[in-house]
Amino acid sequence: MEQFTAAFIRLASVEQMSFTTLGVLHTLAGRGPMRLSELTASERVTQPAMTQLVTRLERDGLAVRSPDPSDGRAVLVRVTPAGAKAVEARRTERTDRLTAMCDQLDPHHRQALAASLPALLEMARLAAAQAPGRPTAPRPPEGATS
Fold first, then answer.
1. Partners of 34 in the β-ladder
2. DSSP state string for the chain
3. Would you tell me how many other CB atoms lie within 10 Å of the CB of residue 25?
4. Would 40 disulfide with which of 50, 79, 92, 137, CB 3.0-4.6 Å?
5. Closest of 133, 104, 130 to residue 45, by C-alpha
6. How far apart are CA 21 and CA 16, in angstroms?
7. What is the CA radius of gyration of the chain?
8. Residue 56 near residue 49 (C-beta atoms within 8 A)
9. pLDDT tens per residue across span 49-99
10. Cβ distance 112 to 32 under 8 Å?
């Protein structure tokens, strides 16, 4: 699993960015606008590091800060259309490369991989539930695939 995970996160080559930058963009694209403090906890970096990263994302047009309507002293960070496009381009490239790799597997390995997907989805759900600053992921309906 560790070898696959290491290879998987490096599959995409578009939009060469640090893993932390990509993590923040993926988090914002998936969860919506967040406070800096939430991003700091979610991505497990220091507050100054997150502030610098968000400043770079703003400079590059990938994220914007706006006042938090529930607390005028706080700001929310949201992904821009360009940031969402970068996330989607990375996801598409990674999916295309995984598909090409799966096409090279023999039928036995493809069948084994398909059979493991429910367990892998459950592990992803458990990991999301244990991550700081993230809501517990709902359990998918029995037999659901993604």
1. 77
2. -HHHHHHHHT---SS---HHHHHHHHHHHHH--EEHHHHHHHHT--HHHHHHHHHHHHHTTSEEEEEETTEEEEEEEEE-HHHHHHHHHHHHHHHHHHHHHHHTS-HHHHHHHHHHHHHHHHHHHHHHHHSTT-PPPPPPPTT---
3. 23
4. 50
5. 133
6. 10
7. 17
8. no
9. 999 999 999 999 999 999 988 887 889 999 999 999 999 988 888 889 889
10. no
Q: Say yes or no: domain 2-104 is CATH 3.40.50.1820.
A: no
- Cβ neighbour number for residue 139 with a 10 Å cutoff: 12
Q: Give φ, ψ of 12 to 5 degrees.
A: -80, 140
5: its two tokens: 């995970």
Rounded to a whole number, what is the largest CA-CA distance in the chain? Answer: 57
How big is the chain, counted in residues? 146
User: Which one is predicted more confidently, 85 or 137?
Assistant: 85
Spatial CB neighbours of 11, under 8 Å, sequence gap ≥ 6: 93, 94, 97, 98
Residues 54/65, Cβ–Cβ less than 8 Å:
yes
Cross-strand pairs, 139 = none
Tokens of 78: 């949201």
